[in-house]
Amino acid sequence: MYGHLLEDCTLCPRNCHVNRLKGEIGRCRVSGELMVARAALHMWEEPSISGETGSGTVFFSGCSLGCVYCQNHNIAAGMAGKKITIERLAEIFLELQEKKANNINLVTPGHYVPQIMNAIELSKSRGLELPIVYNTSSYEKAETLKLLEGYIDIYLPDMKYYDKAIAKKYSKAEEYFKYASEALQEMVRQVGKLTFREDGVLTKGVIVRHLTLPGYLTDSKKIIKYLYETYGDTIYISIMNQYTPLDKVKDYPEINRCISEKEYEELIDYAIELGIENGFIQEGETALESFIPEFNEEGV
Fold first, then answer.
1. Which CATH number fits the domain 30-291, given the four candidates 2.60.40.1190, 3.40.50.10150, 3.20.20.70, 3.30.420.40?
2. 16 marked among binding-site residues
3. Digit-coded pLDDT (tens) for 202-252
4. pTM here?
5. DSSP string for residues in 139-166
């Protein structure tokens, strides 16, 4: 029904103009066929997403952003994952609901928007009642997100960079902040204020994540300030310390380390000084490779 959007693909800011239905591949590194690397209950999201029973995460293969430090490199580069049909994706949503997932959490879904819309429609016609979470790098076009109005209940976007030079160096996306800020504005417009179940699990709203990079505290502060001054307490801000330097960042020695406890504490103190109340922080040994799930096609 929405397949024509893949014939001359401009879903994301890369504007590749490839015909993915004919197998052509753009910057996301995948064709028009759905590829999923994992579909399972996930306990490591923010508490209001995971709850007690877990978030029903579906990890999609491919990514249009391609950060050099990507924690999910194998799937982001399209090297891991299983090709499935839209019918199968709808079944996966229903299977996760049967496993008592709190929501359906679509991880890196932007390059599959047409297929996902079809799968949501199909699964809802068969009894899916869970909120749908759109978990994204935010390197998105607002006009693509507009297609999702009424399909998505919760947006879980990143806000990675403020500075153009940093975005260019690590993601080859100089205009990242421009696109991400416009995308976030559209997300907030669509889903409105934060709404929770009685047990504290989110059913509607936006949680913005910022992964703190080592050595870039100034850029992190600019992002946190922008988010709070623009949206106040209408969104949650999740400040993450789980950056893990994997093999690929050896060519970037300045980020070939975890962030220090001092750096993270300074950023948290800054957020508190700004007056942020709706926030999440991470404690303990979150910056471990074991924090990254195994992409073994579980549940696919």
1. 3.20.20.70
2. no
3. 999 999 999 999 999 999 999 999 999 999 999 999 999 999 998 889 999
4. 0.95
5. ---HHHHHTTTTT-SEEEEB---SSHHH
